[in-house]
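Hi all, posting the design record for the shared folder.

TITLE: backbone redesign
STEP: 1 of 1
STRUCTURE INPUT:
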């Protein structure tokens, strides 16, 4: 119960059915449906700079259906279709610098797979396709296509290597006030590709972990959010002590 926005009934449910299951392989069908209600926070309402007393509570409904399959320790595969409807989503407007409400419908498909070709190597691939409404009041920077692929390697004792590739498709943002061009036009954020490398080594009975990383190996010039810079090649070295 909310003192301002009254009572709202929310619920969720899911069903899973095993089509095939034995010691080597399995296939499962699954589906779910959920609702949500989110009231504005005190900060979103009353902050002297970005607050908005006219904010409405956010509600959404999400439906998913898909399948999961495994084969020994070699393969894991998941395919899920989703449909999401958002009403009065609470958003932060980067042009007015205030919180507001926006609505958007989206549906798409998520595919993820993990393959272990040899004992100490695992390859992970995930792809998401999103078809969403283009609205003037809902800037969520969600690309239509996104691919993430990684390779995990632990051939050496206590040592772990990871190489991750991210490919993010174009995003279209409505420029209502002309902050980045002509008012009323869409601004296209270009697609970009990132390659990151990580390594860690555990020593002294796993009490110390040394780690290092190189992010944006390709030195990609890209933008996640309009008006904000991103890093080029970035290096990190350190250790973590656990007593």
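Okay, here is what came back for every position:
SEQUENCE:
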């Amino acid at each position: 119960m909310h003192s301002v926005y009254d009572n709202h009934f929310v619920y969720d449910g899911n069903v899973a059915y095993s089509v095939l299951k034995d010691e080597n392989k399995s296939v499962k069908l699954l589906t779910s449906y959920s609702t949500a209600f989110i009231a504005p926070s005190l900060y979103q309402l009353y902050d002297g700079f970005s607050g908005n007393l006219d904010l409405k509570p956010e509600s959404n409904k999400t439906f998913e259906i898909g399948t999961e399959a495994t084969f020994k320790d070699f393969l894991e595969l998941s395919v899920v279709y989703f449909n999401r409807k958002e009403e009065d989503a609470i958003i932060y407007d980067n042009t007015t610098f205030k919180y507001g409400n926006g609505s958007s419908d989206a549906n798409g498909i998520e595919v993820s797979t993990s393959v272990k070709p040899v004992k100490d190597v695992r390859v992970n691939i995930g792809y998401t396709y999103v078809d969403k409404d283009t609205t003037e009041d809902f800037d969520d920077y969600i690309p239509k296509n996104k691919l993430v692929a990684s390779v995990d390697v632990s051939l050496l004792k206590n040592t772990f290597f990871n190489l991750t590739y991210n490919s993010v498709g174009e995003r279209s943002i409505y420029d209502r006030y002309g902050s980045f061009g002509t008012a009323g036009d869409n601004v296209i954020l270009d697609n970009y590709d990132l390659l990151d490398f990580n390594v860690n080594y555990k020593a002294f009975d796993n009490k110390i972990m040394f780690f290092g990383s190189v992010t944006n190996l390709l030195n990609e010039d890209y933008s996640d959010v309009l008006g904000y810079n991103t890093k080029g090649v970035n290096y990190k070295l350190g250790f973590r002590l656990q007593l």
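COMMENT: The helical segments are 42-46.
Let me know if anyone wants the other runs.
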